[in-house]
Fold:
Amino acid sequence: MTRKIFNSIILTGVIFVCYSCGNRESGNSDEANSISKAFLDNIETVQVVMRHQEQEVFLTGKVEYNPDNIISYVPLISGVIERAYFSLGDRVQKGQALLDVRSTELSALQAERITLEAEEKTAEREMKTAQSMFEDNLLSESELLEATGKLKQIQAAINKIKSDMHVYGTDRGNGIFTVQAPMSGYIVYKKAAQGSTVSADSEAVFTIADLSNVWVTANVYAGDLLFVREGIDVEMTTFSYPDEVFYGRINSLSQVFDPEERVLKARIIMDNSDLKLKPEMSMLVRLKDKTSRQYATVPLDALIFDDDRYFMVVEEAAGNFVIRAIVPQGHNNNVSYIADGLSEGEKVVVRNQLLIYSGLMGGQK
Structure:
């Protein structure tokens, strides 16, 4: 709206009885401007308050698994999957049977164990006989020790085979072993179909994740690095729950830029006992930071932009208004931070300030 239009409004809608020129550059006025009482009743002012500047920063991020709460199962032996007891997304408990695998390598171990167990029985009988003969002075001590040592060697070999087989899973006999869930959680990856082959050098057959605790990883660009640091509280929203805000805190901030995305990664550890946050879910992360310096604060609507500069109408005394050139420092929501031009306690006009500004500027011509 031009100055001519503003002057017209003032002349017809409200009555300026008189006005005097102010010094626009210095922001001071030598003469008061008398304004009708009716117009003064429609003017609203607020007092300038000094505050620390709050900077609001938005970061993009996504939900990820907590790597400390995830296990991927890679076969340690070659074989064929006889049966899979789970589907993708299933909740499983630690120790629950997940796979039956048939393996020729395991068959050889089972056969060796059976042979050793037969030898163990024979060695036990021989040791008992040697013990009885030793007590009757029919056998020397060294011969008794030899029989005892032979039994212990066989037992040690059996224990080793059982231990090796336990690593692969639970022995079911006939070359089949059952793989059990190593932890409780959810199946988040599955590549196990009946009849498919597995080997020690193959990729993971399934992955279990405990989703009760997840990470939100936020991307921090170089321009935002000044406002992001460890320990800052954040608010997060997602399209899946548009009316819900998730609260967290930046637990760690990477010190190396990602070579592909050219960002630092900020980590926010979140409790997810209600399972609302799903891995790969996009998140909008908002954080607020306060500067160490205090600035004059006024409502954003009080600012007047004209001729590539910012101004405000200041009420120096009752009914006495001047135009003040100001230097904004920044904005946050509806608050404007002023670096220069205002002092604490001054009153700035926040309603009908454009009418006053136009009238004062017209009076300077």
Observations:
- The two ends are 18 Å apart (CA to CA).
- The domain at 57-67+212-291 is CATH 2.40.30.170 (Elongation Factor Tu (Ef-tu); domain 3).
